[in-house]
Amino acid sequence: MTRETATTGASDILLVEGLSAHYGKVAALAPIAIRVGRGQIVTVIGGNGAGKSTLLNAIMGALPMGGHSQGSVRYLGRAVQDWEIERRVGQGMSLVPERRELFGSMSVEDNLLLGGFRLYRAGVAGWRDMLNEIYALFPRLHERRSQQAGTLSGGERQMLAVGRALMAQPQLLMLDEPSLGLAPRIVREIFQIIARLRSTGVAILLVEQNARAALQVADYGYVLETGDLVLEGEASMLAGHPRIVESYLGLGKKKD
Ligand SMILES: Nc1ncnc2c1ncn2[C@@H]1O[C@H](COP(=O)(O)OP(=O)(O)O)[C@@H](O)[C@H]1O
Ligand SMILES: [Mg+2]
Q1: pTM of the predicted model, to two decimals?
Q2: H or E segment to which residue 16 belongs
Q3: Residue to mutate, 53, 56, 98, ligand 1, most ligand atoms under 8 Å from C-beta
Q4: Ligand 1 neighbourhood includes 150 CB (under 6 angstroms)
Q5: What are 203-251's pLDDT values in tens digits?
Q6: Which CATH number fits domain 1-92+170-249: 2.40.50.100, 3.40.190.10, 3.40.50.720, 3.40.50.300?
Q7: Is the CB of 57 inside a 6 Å radius of any atom of ligand 1?
Q8: How far, in Å, is the centroid of ligand 2 from the Cα of 134?
Q9: Exposure of 213 in the CB half-sphere (CA atoms within 13 A)
Q10: Of 27, 45, 71, 160, which is most buried with the most CB atoms under 10 A?
Q11: What is the average pLDDT score of the chain?
């Protein structure tokens, strides 16, 4: 059921069509199509090695050495697939990678302020006001604002990585497995925050192995298996789809 084109809408934030990726000669992503509408939370679920990080990196123009992609990436109606990553960031595309790269010896607050550096340098008035919004979304970061980032727990580091990305006031926030390595209680907390991000108006593309958490928070979802989309639809539909229930939600038939 994979299509290479997606239904276009005037309100698209992101429209990806015929996007494929290779590492050397090895294909990691078949030509696929996805779209993210304004204010939407869209998820791509898939197991380990399905190609989720490859997809986000290809959209961002940030594939590691040896990786290359082909196809159309339209952001806010403009073809960006040939743009440098800095230009994409400058126009409001943001990726929080799997490894939450923070400045460990700097405070939580300084890490956040660095996230707003581009706006500061561009002379955007009120760039610092975002800090209070971030603290309202993540009270834990406010409590720990003077603490060295390197001493935070895994969940707090994930919050800081998301908060730092938000400081740049992106229009498209791409999250690579925010649940990775976190205890279930912390995963719930992170996903509650992701749900609350709706109120900021940012569109979110979330890739996850944790299908349950991702489908609860998303409007629409895609299922990625070995680099190809095998299923897509409303998140509520996918959450009840037999194939998803069996393969991703751990409620499959019990062995006798
Ligand atoms: N830098 C790389 N070089 C070569 N192969 C890679 C590289 N990164 C990922 N791959 C391969 O591409 C496929 C998809 O990987 P990835 O996008 O990381 O999957 P996921 O994020 O869903 O776990 C895997 O088969 C993986 O081994
Ligand atoms: Mg990955």
Answers
A1: 0.93
A2: strand 12-23
A3: 53
A4: no
A5: 999 999 999 999 999 999 999 999 999 999 999 999 999 999 999 887 5
A6: 3.40.50.300
A7: no
A8: 26
A9: 23
A10: 45
A11: 92
